[in-house]
Write a structure and sequence with these properties.
Length: about 400
């Protein structure tokens, strides 16, 4: 862009709160590059640092990679949603941005910031992070709130940003936003990397035992039960599950000496990607699926369901895409573990995908969407002036 913009992000959690999953890493990648391109980026967020830890009662401001982050006092929370009583005060103090990026949905910070932007006539883009379609818990309540309290968040946005065609379909189906205002931006893959593999002995995995890896929330709808079923057919294989317990009761069902629940890590588990013989994302629905992109960049063979948005960015020979079906997942993983040549081809293909889908290209697209939002606001002003 010709000159730097003042960009304000509003999000329910921010770096280094990596326990909240892929969106935290996505936000960091994006904002770091925006700053490097000459834009001024500030963030309003909660002080939550984990899914099972309380927030701080005091606000603080820190700078990360050139991004000024306002961690607001968060004296109360419900699951991942933090209550931030000082948000209106902070919005009144902060320098008026050229554009607001609403990064999340159905939480106090993003809902409040979007309402403020509409009141102050600040253009904003809305990125629902795969949460637009109500699912899993309290679906009826979510639908009721979406049609009332949260309705303005999407309808008032100059652009709705989605990470894949899967997420675009979810937003279109709601009928709240015209199709021309929904834009697929995608997410970048990490740069291909090589790092030493994790120590098998430290994890209790015998030499030569096949290793199946899953990275993500331990939650309903993620297909983790399909991976446990794989172990029934492969008595030598071990399953590594890396991520926070989302308290859906799934973790309580995971038993056996060949199932290793490791919990969340600070950043991508690079050494575990390098250890695994196959990475599997068996989810019934992912707007993107950053862990699959990370595994591809590590050269780990990837199996992913066709309900995961990352498949938009993987070509043939770069991953195995299967239906959201237990037997299909079990058969594919069993076949792949028995075929070293196919694993080698997928490893090379994943690295090629990572090299093609860079964060720089994603940042180019994001700048275009900010330009669109600012231009739409300017056009609205002109129409208002002409009408008067």
């Amino acid at each position: 862009m010709d000159r730097g913009l003042r960009i304000l992000f509003a999000a329910p959690a921010w770096w280094p709160a990596t326990a909240f999953g892929g969106p935290v890493a996505v936000a960091r990648e994006l904002t770091t590059r925006l700053v490097a391109r000459g834009h001024t980026v500030e963030v309003l967020t909660t002080s939550l640092s984990g899914v099972d830890r309380p927030g701080s009662w005091r606000s603080r401001v820190e700078e990360h990679d050139g991004v000024r982050v306002h961690y607001l006092a968060t004296p109360a929370r419900y699951r991942w949603m933090g209550v931030t009583p000082t948000l209106p005060l902070e919005l009144g103090r902060i320098a008026r941005p050229n554009v607001l990026h609403v990064f999340g949905f159905r939480d106090p910070v993003t809902t409040g910031a979007a309402a403020w932007a509409r009141l102050r006539r600040v253009p904003y883009v809305f990125e629902p992070l795969g949460m637009f379609r109500p699912r899993l818990r309290k679906v009826a309540l979510k639908r009721a709130l979406d049609s009332t309290l949260y309705r303005g968040v999407a309808s008032g946005a100059a652009a709705v940003i989605v990470s894949s065609s899967v997420e675009r379909a979810d937003v279109e189906a709601a009928g709240v936003v015209p199709s021309e205002r929904i834009h697929v931006r995608g997410n970048g893959f990490p740069e291909p990397f090589e790092t030493p593999a994790a120590d098998r002995a430290a994890l209790g995995i015998p030499d030569g035992a096949p290793v199946i890896l899953y990275v993500g929330r331990i939650a309903a709808g993620k297909g983790i039960e399909h991976l446990v079923a794989v172990l029934d057919e492969l008595p030598e294989a071990h399953l590594l599950l890396v991520g926070p317990d989302d308290r859906h009761g799934v973790a309580e069902t995971l038993r056996g000496e060949r199932v290793h629940v490791l919990g969340p890590t600070d950043g991508p588990p690079l050494a575990l990607y390098r250890l695994a013989d196959v990475f599997v994302l068996p989810s019934a629905g992912e707007s993107f699926g950053m862990a699959a992109a990370e595994a591809a960049a590590a050269g780990t063979p990837v199996v992913v369901t066709d309900r995961c948005g990352v498949t938009d960015f993987l070509e043939e020979g770069e991953a195995l895409v299967v239906p959201d079906d237990r037997q299909a997942i079990v058969d594919t993983v069993r076949s792949l573990l028995g075929d070293p040549l196919l694993r080698a081809r997928l490893a090379a293909g994943g690295v090629a995908a990572a090299r093609r889908s860079s964060w720089e290209a994603v940042t180019d697209r994001q700048e275009e969407l900010y330009r669109l939002a600012v231009a739409s606001r300017m056009a609205s002003r002109r129409l208002s002036t002409d009408g008067s």
